[in-house]
Amino acid sequence: MRQKSWYLTIGAVLTACMLAFTALGLFWTPYSPTAVSAADRDAPPCAAHLFGCDSLGRDVFSRTLEGAGSTLAIALAVLALGAVCGLAVGALCGYYGGPADALVMRLCDAVAAFPSVLLALVVLALTGPGKYNVIGALGVLFIPSFARLVRGEFLQYRDRDFVRSARLMGVGDLRIIFVHILPNTWPTLLSGLTIGFNNAVLAEASMSYLGIGVSPTEPSLGYMLKDAQGSLFTLPWCTAFPAAVVILLILGVSLVGEGVRERMGVAS
Amino acid sequence: MGKAVLKRLALLLGTLLLVSALAFAAFSVIPGDPTGAVLGMEATDEQIAAFRARQGLDLPVWQRYLSWLSAFLAGDFGQSYKYDMTVAQLIAPKVGATLTLAAIAFALILLISLPLGLTAARRPGGLVDRAVTVLTQLTMSVPNFVMGIALMYLFALVLRWFQPEYIPPEQGLWPHLRFMAFPALAVALPKSAMTVKLLRGSILGELGQDYIRTAYSKGNSRGSALRRHVLRNAMIPVVTFLAMAIGDIMAGSIVVEQVFGVPGLGRVLISSINNRDYPVVQAIVVLLAGAVVGCNFLADLLYRVMDPRIDGR
């Protein structure tokens, strides 16, 4: 079917554009994101300020670039933490099974029954705001969903013939887990990663929007949206551009995930 | 059926106990002693001792947990650190707004997604289907608070359908509900998109089954086969999804409340987190967790009614 190829293509192009956009922000911004310029206060989008200026005269383009970088970095860190730990927990639970598996899965269910944004807010209530606390809180809360995903895959494979024959040939458990089973779980894992990435972006932006995320001095798209809301009706560009970046980031990655699921035949 | 339900009930109670223990542990271990936060730096030793005795802080942990749990079950959520009120007094007037918001959002999800999913599945690959697919893919990518801001801009500024100012139910039920429909829509739209996608896929999966061919051969039109035969089976995964989504809808309501300035649980939660008013945060978390786990249990029951085959497990 022709439609199948479109998701992945559009998603990949969009994601590449967004990554290029954020990468640009790491090295260069047209103005300093915190520089206040009285003359440019409330300036609408124009050649000098592509995305306009906010009520303090800060360049929205520069701030969006920097905020996107920070949001992306946090999301990737959360994903790395959640996926690596979730992979380890899920692989061990799925491969070995037993009472430990049942206990860990109960715990995962208890954590996963609850929306991660709220739990992360509560964790931050205890630890205080800040980039690393957000990463830690969300990362830990993302473990159960990955663990469950990976466990399900391992359950499917652990008694297959190729695993049995490997075991018969005296291959160690760790080698079976990583070399024999893990490669088979790639499509599911990749699709899970795209969903996890989007949830991480969403969670970070929501938390910062609520004012309980990264600390207010750190750049963040969520904070920009919160700040801009007071002047939504007079300075809509302060809201529109950061919002568009969040949406396009999520859209691109979710299309990639959709494409992966379609091509590799993973149930969504 | 009875045995399976009892088993689920035991599981429900176990999960609730686990959640409450986690919440208790988190709030009594991590922040340390609330004494300093409440009494301030200049408190005398006698004041501190009196406070600790009154709060039961000198008892062992498990005793504190049990007394906290039994008080909680009796509706006594403790005393706010920040305000001279009990937590129950602080939360009670706010619960209504959040529940209203979540309930309207849930109703909207059903209202939006069922007709759209059915229409899209009626002619897969057709114009309507493709339009719906693109729309759902786009809508799914919009975080609910961004959706809220967009709706606010569109309906309050451009179309002027509502004033961006909260209308309490005392000023009339209808204006209140009308106002609440907009934040509820912001919560509902992204979730509706996911539901439409799921429902469409699930219907298309069922349409290929033998029993549908039989239904056609007995003279059903595509529409009546859909309504009378497919929908019931296709709804099963959707019901599971919606049950799992209840937690997200609650969380979404709490976030979107901030966009529209609705004085609900979200506002109390945020200000309590900022004030480090832990008893309030703890009570809200445990209540929400209870609501979420309870809804999942109800969905599980519904699921069994819809699909009797599940009974054996």
Give me the secondary-structure category of chain B. mainly alpha
CATH superfamily of chain A: MetI-like
CATH class type of chain A: Mainly Alpha
Count of extended strands of chain B:
0
Largest sheet of chain A: none
Q: Mind explaining what this structure looks like?
A:
The complex is a heterodimer of chains A (268) and B (313). Chain A is mostly helical. Helices cover 73% and strands 0% of the residues of chain A. Chain A has a single domain, classed as MetI-like (MetI-like fold, Orthogonal Bundle). Chain A has helices at residues 3-27, 60-96, 98-112, 116-127, 131-157, 161-168, 173-181, 186-209, 221-229, 236-264. In chain A, helix 2 packs parallel to helix 5 (131-157) and helix 8 runs antiparallel to helix 10. Chain B is mainly alpha-helical. Chain B contains 12 helices and no strands. The longest helix of chain B is centred in the C-terminal third of the chain and has 39 residues, at 222-260. Chain B is flat and about 85 Å long. Classes of the chains: A mainly alpha (268), B mainly alpha (313). At the A-B interface, helix 3, helix 4, helix 8 and helix 10 of A face helix 1, helix 6, helix 7, helix 10 and helix 11 of B.
Features:
heterodimer; A: 268 residues; mainly alpha; 73% helix; B: 313 residues; 12 helices
Write the layout of secondary structure elements.
The complex is a heterodimer of chains A (268) and B (313).
Chain A: H1 3-27, H2 60-96, H3 98-112, H4 116-127, H5 131-157, H6 161-168, H7 173-181, H8 186-209, H9 221-229, H10 236-264
Helix pairs in contact in A: 1-2, 1-10, 2-3, 2-5, 2-8, 2-10, 3-5, 4-5, 4-8, 5-8, 6-7, 8-9, 8-10, 9-10
Chain B: H1 2-29, H2 35-39, H3 45-55, H4 61-73, H5 87-122, H6 127-140, H7 144-158, H8 173-207, H9 210-217, H10 222-260, H11 265-275, H12 278-306
